[in-house]
Design a protein that fits this description.
The protein is α+β, with helices and mostly antiparallel strands. The protein contains ten helices and ten strands.
């Protein structure tokens, strides 16, 4: 847990929650906190520990983009969540969209543009969204509303090239997939939009599970989430996020992205869905550990 990404604090929170639940489930747990700098003595540390399974509670770049997964593969250590290819593919939003679109799933149009061009003028007609191509947790997201006269003034910390995508209006829905089954559909209700603070601050958002939506939309979310999980080659636990414009019926359901390392904090969505499906947090942790062991 921890690590050098922009989601370090979320990872630390996830790691602590997972470690506590794993102990309740009966496992001997050693917490390995990675520093905020890349590198270090991780290989030596893992070799020394001789762990039966590595529970990957890292988020963001280097933790869920295939990097740590490749290291663990090289060391021959079983680990939770998706493998190298699925992790790298899901983290690259553009390539993930290509794979999802090829699987017949509804995604919005987008382009990759130089950040300086995005600051200078509208790359797409408003409304649109600007985000890094390879970050999660709504890090560095800018929404340009309909009728905006000025382009977004992106922070200097944004990457040199960013994704610009058509804005998808509507309600925020999400579905977690465990193995080969969808756990449920949650609607996320916030005062504004579902940004970093809304995701990880207590009271930042309200989760309605099961979502109060038509049965057709519930079924579609569950179906699309499983198909997205399979299209990207995910394994273990993933979570797929949607926008649904309720004025347009099924045509208004858009798949935003797939998260191969869903948050495991007290306000996180995947553990809530598992609990609603009858699997408490320690049982979810046990399932993920056993799933990792069975794949070796």
């Amino acid at each position: 847990m921890g690590g050098p990404s922009a989601e370090r604090e979320v990872s630390l929170s996830s790691g602590r929650e997972c470690a506590n639940a794993l102990r309740v489930a009966g496992y001997e747990v050693i917490e390995v906190e990675l520093g905020s700098e890349r590198g270090g003595d991780l290989v030596a540390r893992l070799a020394e520990l001789r762990a039966d399974v590595v529970f990957n509670a890292l988020h963001g770049r280097w933790g869920e983009d295939g990097c740590i997964q490749g290291l663990l593969e090289w060391l021959g250590l079983p680990y939770t969540h998706s493998g190298v290819l699925a992790s790298a593919l899901a983290m690259d939003k553009t390539r993930a969209k290509d794979a999802l679109r090829a699987a017949g799933l509804p995604v919005v149009d987008s382009v990759i543009a130089d950040a300086c061009d995005v600051r200078a003028g509208h790359v797409l007609p408003p409304p649109y969204v600007v985000k890094p191509n390879d970050e999660g947790s709504s890090v560095g997201v800018y929404i340009v509303h309909d009728g905006a006269n000025q382009p977004p003034q992106l922070a200097d910390t944004m990457p040199a090239r960013v994704m610009v995508e058509t804005y998808a209006p509507g309600r925020e829905l999400t579905t977690a997939v465990l193995g080969d089954r969808a756990l449920g559909v949650t609607e996320i209700i916030t005062e504004g939009w579902y940004d970093y603070a809304a995701k990880y601050s207590v009271g930042g958002s309200r989760h309605v599970i099961p979502a109060d939506i038509p049965a057709e939309i519930t079924a579609a979310c569950r179906d699309y989430a499983v198909r997205a999980h399979e299209a990207l080659g995910c394994r273990g636990l993933s979570r797929t996020d949607f926008r649904w414009d309720d004025r347009c019926g099924l045509d208004g359901l858009i798949l935003l992205e797939v998260n191969t390392q869903p948050g495991m904090t007290p306000t996180s969505l995947a553990p809530e869905q598992a609990a609603h499906a009858g699997m408490d947090f320690p049982a979810l942790m046990r399932w993920m550990v056993e799933d990792a062991l069975c794949r070796m």
